[in-house]
Every structure is written in C-alpha cells, then in structure tokens.
Design a protein that fits this description.
With 238 residues, the protein is of the alpha/beta class. The protein folds into 2 domains: 131 residues, P-loop containing nucleotide triphosphate hydrolases (Rossmann fold), CATH 3.40.50.300; 46 residues, no CATH class. Helices cover 37% and strands 26% of the residues. The chain is built from 9 helices and 10 strands. The strands form 2 sheets. Strands 6-7-8-3-9-10 form a 6-stranded mixed beta sheet, with helices on both faces. The chain has a 4-stranded antiparallel beta sheet with strand order 2-1-4-5, covered by helices on one side. A hairpin with a 2-residue loop joins β4 and β5. It binds adenosine-5'-triphosphate (ATP).
C-alpha cells in the first residue's frame, strides 16, 4: 500500500494557480526528492500535505485514510512530521533542552534521558548538548531541528531544503542521516535544490514546474531528460 497519495490536488492563492492537479504517490520505505524551479509550488505542496493549507479540490490520503479535512495536529498524530526551511529551534535553550521539549510528550524520567542521549549521538551533537542552540553552526541547527522533527518517530518525514546553506561535507552528512532514518523504516520526502544530495539519497525524483508534476523517475532519468534541463537543471543547477 502507498503511504501517501495526492490525488488531483489544486490550490489557488487569489488568481494564482499554485498547485495544479498534482498526483503524487509515495511508497512506504522510499526516499523521494521533489525538485523544481523557485516558485514551482514545492513548499505549498508540503503545507497541503501537512494540513497548514487546505486544497481547493483534490484529496490527500495517508496510510490509506483520506486526511484531506484533518487539521495539522491530527495528521502529526497519525505519523507525519516536517522540518521547514527556517530553523525553528529554541535559540536561548541548550541543545539538550530543545530535544527534551520535543520528546517529553512521549517519554518521562530515565527513559526520556536515554532517548535524548540516543538522539544526540544520532545527530552528531553529543559534545554540543550543553551549548545554547543559538550558538550552533548553521548546519548543527539544521540537524537539531531534524532531531526535533524525528523525535516522535514519524512514519513520513517531510524535509524542506534540509541542506540549504550547508557545506558539501555537511550536505553529505545530512544525506547519511536521512539514509539511516530510511534504513530504520522512515519514508522521506525532501525538497532539495542540491543535486549532490538528491543523487546521494533519492530513490525517485519528482520535478514540479508551474504547480504541476513535470517529470518523474530515477535521478539518472531526470538528469538525462532534456525537458527538465530546459526548465531547471540546465540553468542554475547543471
Ligand atoms: N500564502 C501565500 N499567499 C499567496 N501566494 C503564495 C503563498 N504561498 C506561496 N505563494 C506563491 O505560490 C507560488 C509557489 O510558492 P512556493 O513557495 O510553494 O514555491 P517553491 O517551489 O517552494 O519555491 P522555492 O524553491 O523558492 O522555495 C509562488 O509564486 C509564491 O509567491
């Protein structure tokens, strides 16, 4: 069964048709990357999946259930989680306290501490746990936020440009993190412009253009597609 199914999703902002009859299916266990030019509607699609926006028409199905009418909190409870582009960490609190906040709805006492320790190691932030989150490097802030997004063990993780502003090395480490999550069973949908990251992690790629699914396939198929090169890869991202 597909984990996520978008059926003919439409979203208008005034006269702007931002999401145009989008059909997209995510199989359980895959890492899927969403690419496309600026303004293609990628972030809007995430907000429709999460329930922060509601479509004018069309349906969102998650694990076989039609969740189109559900609010974001109800979708999160069903196993959806998202990390948006701008880090939303609590800058004045330590790294450890940030993770504690994210985890405390599910864990208490020693179990909570053990779970924080486990996440700190996973994120490569164990030596930074007492550090104020606002003092972390850009990459470390992104990882901390990934940690907060995965704290409730979602079955579907949405990542909006997780490697934006990262060095090639940090980008690669982020890719390894995503692959480890996936090996543990998490399905991932990531918006990315960094083609090295897409090549590292994506099992399938969807190209969005002008609010529509423009192409879909493996990274090799997408890179070889002259139509995609003309609207996207041939420009800033060759
Ligand atoms: N709340 C909103 N109200 C009006 N227009 C919006 C709103 N949100 C997005 N848009 C418009 O919808 C279009 C798609 O925006 P969106 O952010 O989804 O694109 P994107 O593919 O994520 O772009 P980028 O790669 O630059 O992040 C843009 O023209 C944007 O200005």
């Amino acid at each position: 069964m597909s984990l996520l199914e978008l059926r003919k999703l439409n979203k208008h902002f005034g006269g702007l048709h931002v999401t145009n009859a989008v059909d997209l299916t995510l199989e359980a266990g895959e890492i899927h990357c969403l690419i496309g030019p600026n303004g293609a509607g990628k972030s809007t699609l995430f907000r429709l999946i999460l329930g922060e926006h509601h479509p004018g028409s069309g349906d969102v199905l998650f694990a076989g259930e039609n969740i189109t009418a559900l609010k974001a909190f109800a979708r999160i409870r069903r196993g959806l989680s998202v990390k948006f582009q701008v880090p939303g960490v609590f800058k004045g609190l330590s790294v450890r306290q940030n993770l504690e906040i994210a985890l405390q709805s599910r864990h208490r006492g020693r179990e909570l501490e053990a779970e924080i320790d486990r996440l700190l190691v996973f994120l490569g932030l164990a030596s930074e746990q007492a550090q104020t989150a606002g003092n972390l490097s850009h990459g470390q802030k992104q990882w901390l936020e990934i940690g907060m997004a995965i704290s409730l063990k979602p079955s579907l993780l949405l990542l909006d440009e997780p490697t934006a502003g990262m060095s090639p090395e940090e980008t690669h480490m982020t890719g390894e993190m995503v692959q480890r999550l996936n090996a543990d069973g998490m399905t991932v949908l990531a918006i990315e412009h960094d083609m090295a990251f897409v090549r590292q992690v994506a099992q399938r790629v969807t190209v969005l253009h002008l609010g529509q699914v423009f192409a879909q396939g493996s990274i090799d198929e997408i890179v070889a597609d002259e139509r995609v090169a003309a609207i996207y890869l041939g420009q800033a991202h060759a």
